[in-house]
Amino acid sequence: MNAATDEQLAVTFQTALRQADGAFWELHERHAPRLLAFLRNRTAPGGDPEDVHQEVWLRVWRNLPGRFRGDNFRAWLYEVARNCRIDWERKQHKARQAVPFDDSQPLPSEWNHPAPGQISKEQELREQQKNAVSRCLRELENLDPHMAAVVRGRMGGQAYEEICQELHLRPEQAHKLFHQAKQHLRTCAERAMR
Asked: Is 113 helix (H, G, I), strand (E, B) or coil?
């Protein structure tokens, strides 16, 4: 058993954090200008390399203690930057593609509309499907809010790493929850459409 007092342990921890903070900012000072230039050359038009650059350094701060293996820091940093840029562009692409779902709006006019007062079989089926999906998502939220949060995050374009940070989950937990959610939603939708 360690004979150090609580105060000694707290001072040791505080010193280590100060050293880590100083080392981080030294790495930032050494690599930030070139990394930003790298990102500017590889960010799609209309993208924001400064935002990606900031996200890279946040990931470095969070992941350096556990993921850097001690070999080539610069290579590891640029791998983090590449992955961050890809995640960022996926998220931006999904945000541009996303169409808000509003189940109070009528179906698009290009679909076949029957005579006034009548509903086509196709429209009836679509309405049933839409209602089934809404019910299943509400059911999932009631069943397991973490599972529903993982699904919302993935549907919103978040990477598993971001979801894990927000929900305080390990990656394998997030993957398992997402897989379970997909199974639940599939089963629920099939059951609802019988």
From this structure: coil
Residue 108 resides in a domain: no
Cβ–Cβ < 8 Å for 81, 39: yes
- Taking the C-alpha atoms of residue 181 and residue 177, their distance in angstroms, rounded to an integer, is 6
Burial 109-131 (b: 16+ CB within 10 A, else e): eeeeeeeeeeeeeebeeeeeeee
Residue 34's pLDDT is 94
CB atoms within 10 A of CB 156: 13
Do the beta carbons of residue 132 and residue 193 sit within 8 Å? yes
pLDDT attached to residue 143: 86
Number of domains in the chain: 2
Q: Where residue 68 sits, what CATH number does that domain have?
A: 1.10.1740.10
Q: Which amino acid is at 174?
A: A
Same domain, 83 and 28: yes
pLDDT score recorded for residue 33: 93
Q: In this structure, what CATH number is given to the domain that contains residue 168?
A: 1.10.10
> What tokens does 86 get?
């890809």
Give the global pTM. Answer: 0.46
- Residue 185, domain extent: 122-192
Distance separating alpha carbons of residues 163 and 91, to the nearest angstrom: 13
Q: Which residues of the chain have pLDDT under 50?
A: 110
Residue 50 lies in a domain: yes
Asked, for residue 70, whether it belongs to a domain, the answer is yes
